[in-house]
Amino acid sequence: MCKLIKLASGKIRQFSEDTGQPLDWVHSGSLKVARRLQDAEVIENDIARGHQLGLHVQRISPQEAHRLNPFLEPEGITVVMWVGDDMYFDPAQVAIGFTRGAEAHGATLLPHTAVTRVLINNGQVNGVNTDRGRIRAPVVVDAAGAWTRQVAEASGIHIPLVPTMQQLFVTEH
Ligand SMILES: Cc1cc2nc3c(=O)[nH]c(=O)nc-3n(C[C@H](O)[C@H](O)[C@H](O)COP(=O)(O)OP(=O)(O)OC[C@H]3O[C@@H](n4cnc5c(N)ncnc54)[C@H](O)[C@@H]3O)c2cc1C
Does 12 contact ligand 1 (Cβ within 6 A)? Predict the structure, then answer.
């Protein structure tokens, strides 16, 4: 995951250059905080792993964390990790930027077009059927997210992926 994060942040920094599309990203860094001893151990391991992988991570004092984020009260905090590389951005801009960039480089976009079957002949992929007709292609990428398995299964290919639902709670402090 650390390697992936490093690669992804590089891509985000390069995004406008690569795609010619805007992306408002904020290099904020982030804080990971432990209050209980058992959580402190997890964060200590994260810090050691981050150093090994060359990430910009550092153990900082609760007072320093409070200076960086005044909403965070320093009392009762055991360990704080600061991740200097972390950034945030608007994910919709990424998806739209990549598609517009691809279109500018000659890709044809077909929104609202469902793939109903990947066509395979003699063990070789040669296109897809869609609800708006057939598309011939020597290479097909199944990037259907949570529906990846269903898209593949329509052509007898089993992909061992099972999407699971999580619960999210937004809490007060
Ligand atoms: C509520 C929610 C909140 C999330 N919050 C975060 C977050 O804060 N941070 C984070 O990192 N991740 C978050 N995620 C996870 C993140 O959205 C996904 O990991 C990511 O979008 C997956 O990207 P993807 O390109 O693989 O699939 P998707 O973005 O799901 O794209 C798959 C696309 O395939 C299309 N498709 C499906 N079937 C077919 C078909 N038969 N034919 C043609 N097209 C088809 C779909 O319409 C869709 O556009 C969140 C997810 C959800 C649901």
Answer: no
Instruction: Decide: 94 in ligand 1 pocket, CB within 6 A.
Output: no
Residue 86 · residue 30 · CB < 8 Å: yes
147 neighbors 138 (Cβ within 8 angstroms): no
Pocket lining: 151 vs ligand 1, CB cutoff 6 Å: yes
The whole-model pTM stands at 0.74
Q: What is the pLDDT along the chain (173 residues), one digit of tens a residue?
A: 778 888 888 999 999 999 999 999 999 999 999 999 999 999 999 999 989 988 899 999 999 999 999 999 999 999 999 999 889 999 999 999 999 999 999 999 999 999 999 999 999 999 999 999 999 999 999 999 999 999 999 888 899 999 999 999 998 87
Which of 101, 106, 108 has the alpha carbon at shortest distance from 22?
101
Full set of structural domains in the chain with CATH: 2-91 (3.30.9.10), 110-164 (no CATH)
